[in-house]
Amino acid sequence: MNRLTGSGQSPALAILGPASTRLLRELDGIFAGWGLAEGAEEISPPPLFPVSDLEKFDVYTNFPHLAWVAGSLDLEQGEAKPLNGRFAPDQLRESRYGLPHATCYGAYLYHEGGTVAADTLLTLVNRCFRNEDHYNGLRRLASFQMREIVALGDYEHTQQVIARFTGRIETFSTALGIGLDREAASDPFFQNDGARALLAKLSPVKYEFQYGDLAIASVNTHRNFFGERCDIRLASGGHAFTSCVAFGLEHWLHVLSERYDGDLDSALDAVRTAATAVAATAGAAGDAGGGR
Description:
Helix content: 25-40%
Strand order of the largest sheet: 3-8-9-14-12-11-10
CATH class: Alpha Beta
Largest sheet: 7 strands, mixed
Order of helices and strands: EEHEEHHEEHEEEHEHEEHEEHH
Structural class: alpha+beta
Radius of gyration: 20 Å
CATH architecture: 2-Layer Sandwich
């Protein structure tokens, strides 16, 4: 059992029950394990970042409708007390921190101003926050958890990572009996850069794996957008290219609960069995190709 909470008629947040938490932790461990098996290193990002950092990525230009920001209470105006569950604007100081709507930002800020190898790989999980026009159980939340595997390096590396993880997602979902549709999607990262915007139109930079109308995973190519914005350079020269693979963990919970009629223990057993199938497939591919 999960508890949905939040103001109004559309609860925006979820407290996951024990069975859901076990399943979510298992899923996260599997997805993280895929990255670690490829040589990824794990990092731990904070749940919020300075607005000045997120501004580097045009977050407030391209995604203003999703943005949440955080500021402290202004106690110089006297005692601050909420009214009807809210603080008035004049009780708040300026908002210096932003809540990210994607996990991968932490990977780029971690390497900001540094040099990376051509085949760098990271994995990280974080809380993401999105200001939606409505909420709908685990399908759409104000705060949810996203595991990502992020490739930094040369362009070939970023594309090879996407290809390998696309195969794993497809094998895993088929073993679970939740066939997914791979659909081209769009992110407005490049709308302010004519050349990149044209490339995005010619070759999609984002693919979502959808169960019905719900995206539960995606693969994303950023070219050298984040490399330039964070001045991340390759040892061989030039700015690093990046790509990422993202898994919305609560979305997977929703889909598996629906697929297994709310029996999360059966879903957990199926997830473990499917993970074994993915490992066997990956091992066979490594043997055939001589490994990574």
